[in-house]
Amino acid sequence: MSITEEILRGRVHFYVSESRLVSGFIASAIGVIMATAFGIWFKAVGWTQFDFNSLNAFLWAGSAGNLGLKLSSEFTYTLGALAHYGQGIVFGLIFVYVVHPNFPGRLNTRNNLVKGLLWGWALWIISSSLWMPLLFGTGFLFGTWGYANFAYNLVWHSIYGLHLGLFYNPLPKPTV
User: Fold this and answer.
1) What is the rounded distance in angstroms from the CA atom of residue 76 to the CA atom of residue 87?
2) Where are the domains of the chain?
């Protein structure tokens, strides 16, 4: 039986820590790192590159410029990357403490994976309908950037949610 079949049957458990904070932080970091890497690699298959580090750097540079500050491109990119990874971890911790406990279903890998994907898709809807249009003028659901980018954004957020759900995988509390 393949590992995929074992995961879908709930027989594989990726265990990080008993602490929700630690395991949530690690799962969030893995999710945002993997999604960011894939977004940069999108270009290799002919898709639009999703480099959220650079997008955040653009926002930081614009904000600094409005204040009359001149930041080096390296420093701005670093600020953008820190903001991007920080956002991914914060959204992951919101998942851990607010979303995950309120979604129904037993604690097993399959259900946690579904919960992670649903959270990733919720963030995709928010990103596509609110943040990207407001911050970058993409139009509602990427209307002015093309609907292919709307689909690429779905893939990006699915990668984030997949990894978040796989690695934030709490065990049920033991009964005494």
Assistant:
1) 16
2) 17-167
Distances (CA, A) of 125 to 11, 138, 160: 31, 13, 14
Classify residue 24 by burial, with Cβ atoms within 10 Å: 0-12, 13-18, 19+: buried
> What is the residue type of 154?
L
Q: Specify the DSSP class assigned to residue 18.
A: S
DSSP run (H or E) holding 138: none
Rounded distance between C-alpha atoms, residue 8 and residue 105, angstroms: 14
Three-state SS annotation for 80-133: HHHHHHHHHHHHHHHHHHHHHHHCCCCCCHHHHHHHHHHHHHHHHHHHHHHHHH
The Cα 167–Cα 176 span in angstroms is 26
Q: Print pLDDT tens along the chain (176 aa).
A: 666 666 556 555 555 666 788 888 999 999 999 998 998 898 888 887 777 777 777 776 665 555 556 667 777 778 888 888 999 999 999 999 999 989 888 777 788 889 999 999 999 888 877 767 666 666 666 666 667 777 888 898 999 999 999 888 776 665 65
